[in-house]
Amino acid sequence: MIASNLSRTIGIAGGGVAGLTTAIQLKQSRFDPIVYEKESQVGAGRYGDYEGLENWIFPFNMAKFFRQSGFDFSSLTTHPIYRFLVHSHNSGPLTVQSNRPFFYMVKRGSGKNDLDYQLYKQCQQAGVKFELDHEAPESCQIRATGTRKAAAYIRGINFQTKLKNQVHLLLGHEFAPKGYAYLIIINGKGTLATAYKKPKDLDLDPLHNSRDYFNAFGISFTEGDSFGSRGSFSLPFGSLQPPCQVGEAGGYQDYLFGFGIRMSMMSGKAAALSILGRKKEAKEIMKSLNRKRRFSFVNRVLYERLNDNQMAVFAKKFSESPDPLSILSGAYTWNFKNILRWINIGHRYEIRPT
Question: What is the pTM (predicted TM-score) of this model?
Answer without folding.
Answer: 0.90
